[in-house]
Amino acid sequence: MSDKIKTYTNGEVSILWNAELCFHSKNCVNNLPQVFDAESKPWINAQGASTEEIIETIKKCPSGALTYRMNTENQETQENTEISTQIKVLANGPLIVEGKFEVLDTAGNPYERKIKVSLCRCGASEKKPFCDGTHKKIDFQAS
Asked: If 0-12 CB within 10 Å is exposed, 13-18 middle and 19+ buried, where does residue 15 land?
């Protein structure tokens, strides 16, 4: 696991945050501020809401930077219950890919496996192929 991934737990669920994927959409902060507070250190308080509320908010993360793992289940069981692959086009934003898939670099090497990623559509991200939120800064308009 990357050293850029931070883990926070309430005992029942572990919240995993990958800083490299986050483009700070603030969905988490706006949806569940008692858990996700950008002004606090640490910024995630896993004790701040119910496990169900935390999971629902994490599922709304457009970048895939926030994921979760139930502490009572093994990784393989969780992966087998994931949805089929889905690609959402966000208006003037990235492509959100969710499900079972691999993203390969130009040499054919896989990036760290994820169940949700945001792929750059504007061409200006410094984290290509992943979105870093630059589309907002450059006022990207999809045609």
From this structure: buried
Name the residue among 119, 118, 84, 80 with its Cα closest to residue 101.
84
Which DSSP category does 27 fall into? H
- Backbone dihedral region of 60: left (phi > 0), alpha (psi from -120 to 50 degrees) or beta? alpha
pTM for this prediction: 0.65
With residues binned 3-state (H G I as helix, E B as strand, rest as coil), the percentages for the chain, rounded to 5, are: 15, 25, 60
Residues 34-85: tens digit of each pLDDT? 999 999 999 999 999 999 999 999 999 988 899 999 998 654 444 444 458 8
Dist CA 143 CA 139 (whole Å): 13
Task: Give CA–CA dist 70/35, Å, rounded.
Answer: 17
7-18 pLDDT, tens digit each:
999 999 999 998
